[in-house]
């Protein structure tokens, strides 16, 4: 955090929290987007992957995460150990430069292109930090957006093994199990990020929430491993790790971590002039997973020998992860161009 940035940002009202975390402008099969399966055959964009001469990603002089990034995880609800292993490996894969290409680490290189006002790049190092488990749903099974901040407060002020407080390089990732509903989940969001309010948590900390949609809306938030009933004729693809809900979370977690790194306090990298409605680096590429992607077409993905669909390799596992905006080339970018 840069000196003096917090007071300006904290002038944003609590009300702006409910507007600033907006759904991505890219494509996802939200319930209010009724389309035909034939529309998915070709994307609306005939240019490079999501390219646009109208997008102007701009730096607004706020801090970005240039120090080694530590992801502190809060497991809220009922999580199985195999599910945790999948998600942990994804986060560890962000810095696993020796992974088979195309790799998650290669995808992160596009995020690393973003800099702060001194010219320092986003950190290459992303690692797992401490974890906190809340198996007994201490805040209930129906949460508001502000409830997520209360969860973080509970985790950092716990009497036993509290999560460490690190505003400059720590990210706080709240993951809710498939029986927990969070405000606007499945209707407008599959995850979101923001920063905590000192009035609630005691500190300004960048955080993200992502939910497991397996029971509530897999056809929306775990797409394309599940498809919604209102798109007739569309068939799901096979998930690479055998868990539709968790495999669907991977892309959302990547989306949120990339935006937290480049816009942790909502005053750094985004398109448009209004921080209350930022269009961030993953928003611009929502639904794009490969070459040719755009509109409602995912782009070219890979199929494994086992029939699973993926587009990137981790340390030992495979993942399907959306691309992010490359502000140097002005289009959505995957790992191939920089995965050298």
UniProtKB/TrEMBL annotation:
Pfam families associated with the record: Phi_1
InterPro entries (alphabetical): EXORDIUM-like (IPR006766)
Any one GO CC term of the record: apoplast
Keyword Isomerase included in the entry's annotation: no
Localization per Swiss-Prot or TrEMBL: Secreted, Extracellular space, Apoplast
Signal peptide: 1-26
Keywords, in A-Z order: Apoplast, Secreted, Signal
Family: Belongs to the EXORDIUM family.
Protein name: EXORDIUM like 3
Species this protein is from: Actinidia rufa
Lineage: Eukaryota, Viridiplantae, Streptophyta, Embryophyta, Tracheophyta
